[in-house]
Design goal:
single chain; alpha/beta; Nucleotidyltransferase, domain 5; 2 domains; six-stranded mixed sheet; about 20% strand; binds adenosine monophosphate
Amino acid sequence: MKILVLNSGSSSIKYQLLDMNNEKLIAKGVVDKIGFKDSTVGYENYKGIKFKLNKVITNHQDGIQVILDYITDTENGVIENIDEIVGVGHRVAQGAKYFTDSVLIDDDVKEKIKKTCEIAPLHNPPQYKGILAIEDVLPGVPNVASFDTVFHKDIPEHISTYGLPYEWLEKYNIRKYGFHGLSYSYVSRRVGEIFNTDWKQLKLITCHLGNGASVAAVKNGETIDTTMGFTPLQGLIMGTRCGDIDPAIIPYIMKRENYNVDEMTDILNKKSGILGVTGISSDFRDIEKAADAGNERCQMALKMFIYKVKFYIGAYNAVLNGIDALVFTGGIGENSSRLRHAICKDLEDLGIIIDLEKNDFKGEERIISPLNNKVKVLVIPTNEELVIAREVKRIIS
Ligand code: AMP
């Protein structure tokens, strides 16, 4: 049972082909810089073939066609015929009020996803484009949308409600939706598997720290709170997103710098956060290197990030009245032993301790707390694609 999973960005498509009879990944890659002169297509299969080629990819349709060509290629492909793909899963960040579960995509679903684009301007428009593109290239194959917001659908009302005029909340469906739900779904279930226990009995704090970053408090299989909100702009300071700020700063700057709404939205999403503060990069590898070389703004940016993660770990510990496990995932959470160490430092009164030797690695699944420590600290590489493929299998079956 071959299922293709697509995560479409504005100029990229990440893809994975999985055999859902045994949940094995059989091919994956990224089509990057779509619409630019230097676009590339990466491909890797389970036989160990791996390459990245420069290829002119003008739009998402082209990108998907190339993916299909590669996976059916007689020499390096993994399936003989495109008909072997029984379903396609799409990651969609914002499901808003419309979706509380993954769905089979039809015209009504597409219309609703289109409506959500305004409140997830970075994520939903390209994901919507990816859906239209595959319908063109692979007609007749069922498409399923899986939403990052679904995992957070049960956040209690007093936590998901913003202190704004009630008529706005109702008229515009303004509430905390939360994001990274596919990742949280994977890592939370995985904690249960690792400890051979029902994950729904556990109290967890999960930290998805990547270019976009958030923390979630999970209890009885439901999110109690998470740092992202109505959009993925709230919460932690991120690579290019501002995270929590005093909302009064926005009109203050707009007036003085003469920015319109679109310009201001763009700056808050793409030119703020770690990039904004350091003026150097949004990539934590660059920031760590520059901080070590003495760059004071980079040193401060790292401290800002660490402080905010710690802050929410503390807050969610209070909200959950203690935890069973703390999980790190995402590019930073999986790979930066230094940031994991800094975040967990001086949290022993909360029962959070890590073993520095166990923590000294990157990119694997590991328990990094001392053997008998009550609160387990884990690094779990996320697998959002597998969660989506499971959803496709469930829905088309
Ligand atoms: P993601 O959005 O989950 O793919 O994470 C991407 C981010 O992970 C990059 O922007 C980097 O900042 C960060 N990252 C990846 N590898 C490392 C590493 N070895 N050390 C620190 N940060 C890393």
